[in-house]
Write a structure and sequence with these properties.
2 domains, Arc Repressor Mutant, subunit A, 17 helices, about 350 residues, disordered N terminus
Length: about 350
């Protein structure tokens, strides 16, 4: 039996902003634009292009609440998990792909689960007739979000392990810790096997015979290298500062009433000098964060509302509309009016 590594459930991991790219692709394919999906989350579009950017727990929850609201589909997690091929996870994904056997790949998932985009911890169980990959220690969220995360991660696990095997994982059963939302056949069709509901822990069951079959992309030297990189990355994450995210969330708390640097420092219980230093260490500054927040909000107001420019200027904390227009032209090379017209025409 491969035991799950203990992760304190009261401190959910903070995931990379890029973890939203796969679900956003699914949602865009369903006709939802990115601005609608990110509205009210405090997540900037620029964060998605920054490999160093990370999400706060509350930002990620806000995103998935938007997903449920927009789609109205309690089983949407099944679709959201489909794009999570191993390559999406970077170093961790390549450690999976280069593993010698499925057993080794699942061991990597247990040991390096922090490098996935999941809030669950993983465990592998084995008997003479069945083996299982289990998901335990659910995140502290409301039931509707728990079910979305569970469906997404179970679906992603099937995709990931199927990718390393270069063929579908031969499932015998799937157990899910929810009632199926009245869509039990949808779940059976998705997993292609019997599904048991209201069954904890949630798990994928399969024959133990597949655990030690050689994987097609196995490479011992490459696998060892990526495992070592994963260990280093986890060590880095444990000490990684997320100060920029904290500052951004405070700036977004009351759009139009942006706190100054002294007020933000006071709310974070640090001196202004420490705030500047920590932002600089993360490659940012207070002014840069304020401008990014204003630019993102400005685009949302221009594209999603018909508010006059003077009112948008006021909402963004500018004393004169001319100051807003000048700043927006610096950000986008277009005036606010031209930006709105261009996107209206598109």
């Amino acid at each position: 039996m491969i035991q799950a590594r203990h992760v304190p459930t009261h401190i959910p991991p903070q995931h990379a902003a890029k973890s939203l790219e796969p679900p956003l692709e699914v949602l865009e394919g369903m006709g939802f634009d990115r601005r609608s999906c990110l509205r009210g989350t405090g997540i900037l579009l620029s964060q998605l292009d920054n490999p160093q950017s990370r999400l706060t727990f509350q930002q990620e929850l806000a995103f998935y609440r938007n997903v449920l609201r927009l789609t109205g589909d309690p089983a949407i997690g099944l679709k959201l998990g489909e794009p999570f091929i191993p390559q999406r996870y970077g170093l961790f994904g390549y450690a999976l792909l280069s593993a010698s056997t499925l057993r080794r790949a699942m061991t990597h998932a247990v040991n390096f689960g922090q490098l996935t985009f999941s809030f669950f911890t993983f465990q592998v169980q084995e008997s003479t007739t069945r083996a299982s990959f289990e998901m335990k220690n659910p995140p502290p969220v409301e039931k509707s979000l728990h079910d979305v995360y569970l469906d997404r991660d179970m679906s992603a696990a099937v995709v990931g392990f199927g990718s390393v095997m270069a063929k579908p994982l031969p499932l015998l059963q799937v157990h899910l810790a929810h009632d199926g939302h009245g869509l039990k056949q949808v779940y059976r069709d998705h997993f292609g096997c019997e599904v048991r509901f209201n069954s904890y822990p949630s798990k994928l069951l399969f024959s133990p015979d597949v655990l030690d079959m050689p994987l097609p992309q196995r490479d011992p030297d490459t696998s060892q290298y990526f495992r070592q990189q994963c260990r280093m990355l986890i060590a880095k994450l444990k000490h990684q500062s997320l100060f920029t995210d904290d500052v951004r969330m405070l700036l977004l708390a009351q759009p139009g009433q942006f706190p100054n640097i002294e007020q933000v420092a006071d709310q974070l219980h640090v001196s202004v000098r420490t705030l500047r230093r920590r932002l600089n260490e993360e490659g940012s500054s207070f002014r840069q964060q304020l401008e990014e927040v204003r630019f993102q909000l400005a685009k949302e107001y221009l594209l999603d509302t018909r508010l006059p420019l003077a009112e948008i200027s006021d909402l963004l904390g500018y004393t004169e509309p001319g100051n807003f227009s000048h700043a927006f032209r610096r950000w986008s090379r277009l005036s606010p009016r031209d930006y709105r017209k261009h996107h209206d025409a598109a």
